[in-house]
Amino acid sequence: MAFLIFLVVLGVLVFVHELGHFLAAKGAEVKVEEFGFGYPPRALKIGKKWGTLFTLNWIPFGGFVKILGENYEESESPQESSSQEGPRVALAGSTRPSLEDFPEGKSFTEVNKKWQATILASGVIFNILFAWVLFSLGFVIGLPIPVENDYGGVVKNPALTIVDIIPNSPAQDVGLKTGDKIKSIFNSNGDDIGNLSSESVSNFINNSVGSFSMEVNRGGKILDFKITPKTGIIENKKIIGIDMDMVGTLTLPIHKALYEGGKTTFEITRLTILGVANLIKSAVVGKADISQVSGPVGIISLVGDASRLGFAYLITFAALISINLAIVNLIPFPALDGGRILFVAVEGITKKKINPKFAQVVNTTGFVILITLMLIITYRDILNLF
């Protein structure tokens, strides 16, 4: 089930991203040859509309739009351009043809640099806007929010909730997860400690002898865990490795939801940019830590956890993935949108066309590096499952 939910979430996010490219290209009157759901090999031709072939492909992780001239494989002018659906066209004369001669659009290289950059950046923009929509929807239907917050609304049904877990801690070892609501705690004698607050639970854990039992509510299921606190993680203190807060559900009217959704999107986008920048900086000096980077397998597990906690958690998680997808695509690395934007910027500054062979080699090399990195991360994610 988690895999299917992951495919749906990824499919929607990729569709939104590629829709941004598609609409911007149509706005610039550039020909979009194909809009593919998933990656080739091709499984099915859905049909042709607005001069674009819509296809369904066998590899479900992603999607693409094939824009005429974007990858430098076509000639600069439409006189010599070709598409998958027709023969090469050659026109006599030296005058520039009009759109009447090419009703389905012109080449990417035929439009000015501002339009080229807009087409390339539109996928990122659409993912950010979609995250705003998702966060706003979350606030309308009710998002899990700490009791102490800056939103101004009334938080309903607050409960002591695990908001973070330290890696390799007793809490992680027994299977506690972020989002678990602590229902009750029993000491070694089986007595309920009663009052549940961050302070009272922390004091109980620090003063406990041996192991104790904790009941949590995870998406409506009551689970019981036996935990033994550990010393040495924090000096002079016994802990199980969790951060707790009183968290409830906050529901806002639509106008406030849109405002708070926008603020949340901006802040998370800012933090994501800083995080990616720090990771790249660390990679340059050979100190990058990719232990917190997840591939498809790791994300499937997280999507499963979010879906079990409820629809609000799932759409919030989808918004976070959408922002991450946008920022990663904006990195000026070959084969990504950011790398293509960099090519456009270089051409705009130098007033010279980039050699098509050079562009293809660079993009292919970048793609191979990205796939290799993804395989390494996926392998590590699989090992973490066991």
From TrEMBL:
Enzyme class: hydrolase
Boundaries of every PDZ domain copy: 138-220
Subcellular localization, as worded in the UniProt entry: Membrane
Its EC number(s): 3.4.24.-
InterPro entries: PDZ (IPR001478), PDZ_sf (IPR036034), Pept_M50_Zn (IPR004387), Peptidase_M50 (IPR008915)
Cofactor(s) in the UniProt record: Zn(2+)
UniProt keyword annotation of tRNA processing present: no
GO cellular component, one term: membrane
Protein name as catalogued: Zinc metalloprotease
Organism of derivation: Candidatus Zambryskibacteria bacterium RIFCSPLOWO2_12_FULL_39_16
